[in-house]
Amino acid sequence: MVLDSAAASASQGADTQQPDGAFSPATARVIQAIVASGFAAANLPGLVVGVWVPGRGSYVQALGISDTATSAPLQLSDHFRIASNTKTFTATAILQLVDEKRISLSDHLDRYIPGIPYGGQITIDQLLGMTSGVYDYTADPAFVAAYVANPLLPFSLSQLVAIVQRNKPLFAPGTSIAYDDSNYYLLGAIAEKVSGQPLSQLIAGKITRPLGLDHTSYPTTPAMPAPFSRGYVIEAGSIQDYTASNPAVAGGAGAMISTLYDLKAWVKALATGTLLTPATQALRLKTKVLSQSPTVTARYGLGIGSFNGFLGHTGTIFGYGSIAIYLPAKDATIVAVSNECSLFGNAPAAGTGIALAAYLFPEYFPHGI
User: Fold this and answer.
1) Residue 295 DSSP class
2) Rounded distance between C-alpha atoms, residue 170 and residue 325, angstroms
């Protein structure tokens, strides 16, 4: 993957910083080549990447443009929708309520939200760990068609419940595992009921403000804080602007907005349990295999993923993609955010982040990627 010519070309006009001490020139060249390769292969308008490895170096770069209409360059300070990285905040809010003894992991879903099949059996723990079997509303064909046509469409908990009711559960509670946005939409609603606050206020008061994440927010309108990158979907050679999105559609599963440096701070706090008791953090980190390939095993805990030992999460939503991962044994952090992504599996930011992890820590990826 060492593409020196591509890396040199991509670096022209890029916003690049190594504020905490640069990697060696040889390592920096390979990192830049990996980033340039991911950027070019996905035909992205823009990509922001940060790598921080104490004792070895750091590398931060913004490539491309934030606005195709004006060709404004992407900036390191730009805000992005972080999609499913929101789940880590929603889960933390729930687990804080567990620590406060205001909710229990063994509580059943129907205690808080009626009408969900198996609601009397599904536990908070199962919702957090993706083992509830609740039907995933983002797989419903009618919902998908409506959202593709209008990302600003009105949406509410009652509509999610209706979608779940008209589809079969994925499996009986606790019998399998499947990544599922419905779990976290429901958890967001539960957090609001238990706390008596909107999820936006709960997350601000208990997570972002205490950690000084001044550029991270749970929006209540489609507007994005300045400066921000616009978000795009590229299909069949055409580019569509999907910047504006109703946050109520994604809810606790994917509504939040953040920046490169806030995600750096957040993923370390998430992985090390800064805001939770040690006992609750230990429960969070009991992961189960979610998916497996010959090279990468993705596991899932209570609102946290593990990718060959790197802890964190990925996110995809129309217009944006993200990954934020932390390796506790090395105190290493990798973050990548793109301003192009489809809802249906196109995840160039995540691919770039994993490629960087595999290069820098090959012992965690013995079969490559």
Assistant:
1) S
2) 28
Alpha helices by DSSP H, the chain: 4-11, 25-41, 86-99, 124-128, 141-149, 157-165, 181-195, 199-203, 209-211, 247-250, 260-272, 278-284, 348-360
- Report the chain's C-alpha Rg in angstroms: 20
pTM: 0.94
Which pLDDT does position 342 carry in this prediction? 72
Q: Is residue 356 part of a domain?
A: yes
Residue 13 domain-assigned (yes or no)? no
> 43: pLDDT confidence band, cut at 50, 70 and 90?
confident
Per-position DSSP letters for 148-213, written without gaps between them: HH-TT----HHHHHHHHHTS--SSSTTS-----HHHHHHHHHHHHHHHTS-HHHHHIIIIIHHHT-
Q: Residue 238 pLDDT more than 90?
A: no
> Do 333 and 264 touch, CB atoms closer than 8 A?
yes
- How many domains would you assign to the chain? 1
Question: Which structural domain, as residue segments, surrounds residue 330?
Answer: 80-364
